[in-house]
């Protein structure tokens, strides 16, 4: 090739790379629009309507009480990111990616999409700069109260959030039951244990074990049917209370904090962990936290995205392993296992 030809190829490759980078920025910068599109099709239940095969837009519009052309444009955008498959005849089909939005998908991500689109999540993000400049949750600025106070004042939002947390309990129980090995413990206290699903699953694996379900009174009020369904009612003590102010259960062999610690700043977490340490006393019990671990720099992990929710909504944070170890040390515990290096992980600590 001539020098001119080589220069042309080099310039072409450079332009190709520049175009690719610009397209990537365009996609990332459009994340809000994409998230809203996915929220709309989730709220309308479009994925459920496509389970049996492709459906024309007119039929989908009638079923969802939507404007036909507006819905077509939403579905076209969803197809551009792989949620649906736009057919040659103008109908739309479900893709394997979109199957995660069906209501029948146990453990799917439909609740997460609904959580992200809810007003109590969406509106604070309009004030995200407040959080970045002050370190305080934008939620408090928008609503004039903290996240959990808001839930207490808005029963419908509270019911949704409890259902959302129960959904994650199901996912985490299936994922961590074997690693936790509940048969090691005679008595398990699930602190902030929601409706008891996680604890029930642990006790099903351990027929000789007993448990204490501890959460706010209005939360544990819904636990009995679920515990009965799993056949563990007689082995579970249900206690309503606030884990920051009320007496915590004593005498347990394991204290579980599942998706709890990341909701709070460090000083508040230390307060909670020290309360559990005091409940343990001189026993050789275990503290088991199931939560996110942020991986090293530049690596993709959803924990780094959830961390922004913690900043904007709760005032909490996701932590890397070093930060987890510092929390345990400040609270009278030491880490005794080697947890996963990223994402959801089980951290086991013993009192010192």
TrEMBL record:
Active site: 262 (proton acceptor)
SUPFAM superfamilies cross-referenced by the UniProt entry: S-adenosyl-L-methionine-dependent methyltransferases, Winged helix' DNA-binding domain
Sample GO molecular function, one term: O-methyltransferase activity
Ranges for domain O-methyltransferase dimerisation: 36-101
InterPro entries: COMT-like, COMT_C, COMT_dimerisation, SAM-dependent_MTases_sf, WH-like_DNA-bd_sf, WH_DNA-bd_sf
Keywords: Methyltransferase, S-adenosyl-L-methionine, Transferase
Sequence ranges assigned to domain O-methyltransferase C-terminal in this UniProt record: 126-334
Name of the protein this chain belongs to: Tetracenomycin F2 synthase
Lineage: Bacteria, Bacillati, Actinomycetota, Actinomycetes, Micromonosporales
């Amino acid at each position: 090739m001539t020098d001119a030809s080589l220069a042309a190829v080099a310039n072409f490759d450079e332009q190709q790379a520049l175009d690719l980078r610009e397209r990537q920025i365009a996609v990332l910068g459009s994340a809000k629009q994409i998230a809203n599109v996915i929220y709309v099709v989730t709220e309308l239940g479009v994925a459920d309507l496509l389970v049996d095969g492709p459906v024309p837009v007119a039929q989908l519009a009638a079923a969802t009480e939507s404007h036909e052309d507006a819905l077509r444009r939403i579905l076209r955008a969803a197809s551009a990111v792989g949620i649906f498959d736009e057919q040659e005849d103008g109908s739309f089909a479900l893709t394997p990616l979109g199957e995660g939005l069906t209501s029948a998908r146990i453990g799917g991500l439909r609740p997460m999409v609904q959580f992200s689109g809810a007003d109590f999540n969406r509106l604070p993000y309009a004030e995200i700069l407040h959080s970045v400049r002050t370190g305080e949750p934008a939620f408090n600025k928008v609503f004039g109260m903290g996240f959990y106070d808001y839930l207490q004042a808005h029963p419908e939002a509270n019911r949704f959030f409890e259902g959302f947390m129960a959904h994650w309990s199901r996912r985490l129980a299936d994922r961590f039951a074997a690693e936790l090995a509940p048969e090691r413990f005679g008595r398990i206290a699930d602190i902030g244990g929601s409706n008891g699903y996680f604890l029930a699953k642990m006790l099903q694996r351990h027929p000789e074990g007993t448990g204490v379900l501890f959460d706010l009174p209005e939360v544990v009020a819904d636990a009995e049917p679920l515990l009965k369904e799993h056949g563990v009612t007689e082995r579970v003590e249900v206690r309503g209370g606030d884990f920051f102010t009320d007496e915590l259960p004593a005498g347990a062999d394991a204290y579980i904090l599942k998706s709890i610690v990341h909701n709070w700043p460090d000083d508040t977490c230390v307060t909670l962990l020290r309360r559990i340490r005091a409940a343990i006393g001189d026993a050789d019990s275990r503290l088991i936290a199931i939560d996110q671990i942020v991986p090293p720099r530049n690596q993709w992990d959803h924990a780094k995205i959830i961390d922004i929710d913690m900043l904007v909504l709760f005032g909490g944070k996701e932590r890397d392993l070093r930060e987890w170890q510092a929390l345990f040390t400040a609270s009278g515990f030491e880490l005794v296992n080697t947890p996963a290096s990223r994402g959801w992980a089980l951290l086991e600590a013993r009192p010192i």
